[in-house]
Design a protein that fits this description.
Main location: cytoplasm
Largest sheet: 4 strands, parallel
EC number: 4.98.1.1
Catalytic activity: Fe-coproporphyrin III + 2 H(+) = coproporphyrin III + Fe(2+); heme b + 2 H(+) = protoporphyrin IX + Fe(2+)
Order of helices and strands: HEHHHEHEHEHEHHEHEHEH
Distance between the termini: 47 Å
Helix content: 40-55%
Bound molecules: the ligand C=CC1=C(C)c2cc3[nH]c(cc4nc(cc5[nH]c(cc1n2)c(C)c5CCC(=O)O)C(CCC(=O)O)=C4C)c(C)c3C=C, fe (ii) ion
Protein name: Ferrochelatase
Shape: globular
Pfam families: Ferrochelatase (PF00762)
Oligomer: single chain
Number of domains: 2
């Protein structure tokens, strides 16, 4: 060592500034078309239904079948329903997401930067992640806005995020909130929304209708073959934490408890199955079949929750709120009411903030 050399040449300069930056929060929902025009709906469905986590068949079959056949046939029909959904602010899934982002940012304050992206279409996950990268966030917490983990929803978001970030030269620390099926704040939000409806009307039965997925998807994710799609899903534990069916049952039990419902006062069912010629079974019972049988069982006034969604969208407002209502009334039912989703309910905003801070 040269004793005459200045200390600064050999020792690193002291850096008084901390390396600590803001924490990035990425909220992600599924996605929606840019407009309800058939061409935009077609582009959305093409991206959605060629995702290998949604349609889990070899690409050589998936592309010709879905891009070539299913989507061209489905797009005009879906566009018609999307036109029914669209309001002056556009697609509810999008504007509720952007509103939530703003409110969560306000509550989290300047130590956090909150971004919002969609798995399919816009704003893209790429653009949201780029916003966080530009701001040199210290780490990223990803919250896919699906209460119950499914490979087709949460898993797809995770894969997309990891794919993008893995191509960055500097890969930041990153963590995922993979399920919040039993989160107390999430349950408290739906309980409050449900109670508000129960105060307005007397109901003889409650329905918890979840987005369906193929049974195969559940079994593929079963830990060491634990899930048999039977009574195993009635208990939510470390062996089936990511079993979609067990999570839906756990959410329902907790909601029923919060609403003071006995076991015989509610029914769990699964909606929105994609009818395919392959006729693969989806999670059952199917919601449309369940609700048509209700009037004959004496359930004339039914309150319907859709707790697989934290924002109103096509699947809640149109499918449960309008199509199911019509089917129920045609089957002899009296009053059918959809409980609105969490959207920007203050308890939900606090729940998201809590989940982020706990992570
Ligand atoms: C709750 C999370 C969701 C899971 C799990 C999920 C699985 C899944 N979905 C399809 C097919 C379609 N879903 C569609 C709409 C849609 N799906 C979700 C969420 C989940 N899907 C949302 C939030 C929405 C609504 C988006 C909106 O813009 O409002 C559609 C498009 C509508 C239509 O044409 O009917 C399709 C198709 C499959 C095949 C699947 C699992 C394998
Ligand atoms: Fe879906
Ligand atoms: Fe299970």
């Amino acid at each position: 060592m040269n004793p005459t050399a200045p200390a600064s040449a050999t020792a690193p300069t002291k850096n008084p500034a901390s390396t600590q930056g803001r924490i990035g929060v990425l909220l992600v929902n599924l996605g929606t078309p840019d407009s309800p025009n058939t061409s935009d709906v077609r582009r959305y469905l093409n991206e959605f239904l060629t995702d290998a986590r949604v349609i889990d068949m070899p690409a050589a079959m998936r592309y010709p079948l879905f891009k070539g056949l299913v989507v061209p046939l489905r797009a005009p029909k879906s566009a018609k329903i999307y036109r029914q959904l669209w309001d002056e602010r556009g697609s509810p899934l999008l504007y509720h997401g952007l509103d939530l982002k703003k409110l969560v940012q306000e509550k989290l304050g300047k130590d956090y930067l909150v971004a919002f992206g969609m798995r399919y279409q816009n704003p893209s996950i790429e653009s949201a992640l780029e916003e966080l990268r530009e701001a040199a966030v210290e780490r990223i917490i990803v919250l896919p806005l699906f209460p119950q983990y499914a490979a087709a929803s949460t898993g797809s978001v995770q894969e997309k995020v990891m794919d993008i970030v893995s191509r960055w030269w500097v890969v930041p620390s990153i963590s995922f909130i993979s399920t919040f099926a039993d989160d107390p704040g999430f349950i408290a939000t739906f309980a409050a929304l449900g109670k508000a409806e129960m105060d307005k009307h007397d109901y003889d039965h409650v329905v918890f209708s979840y987005h369906g997925i193929p049974e195969r998807h559940v079994l593929k994710g079963s830990h060491k073959g634990y899930c048999k799609l039977g009574s195993c899903c009635n208990h939510y534990n470390k062996n089936n934490r990511y079993c979609y069916r067990a999570q839906c049952f756990a959410t329902s039990r907790l909601l029923a408890e919060a609403l003071g419902l006995r076991d015989d006062q509610y029914t769990v069912c699964f909606q929105s199955r994609l009818q395919s010629r392959l006729r693969d079974p989806w999670l059952q019972p199917y919601a449309d079949e369940v609700l048509k049988e209700m009037p004959a069982k004496g359930y004339k006034n039914v309150l319907a929750f859709s707790p697989a969604f934290v924002a109103d969208c096509l699947e809640t407002t149109i499918e449960v709120g309008e199509e199911f209502k019509e089917m129920f009334e045609e089957a002899g039912g009296g009053h059918w009411q959809l409980v609105p989703s969490c959207n920007t309910h203050p308890i939900w905003v606090d729940a998201v903030v809590d989940m982020v801070k706990r992570n």
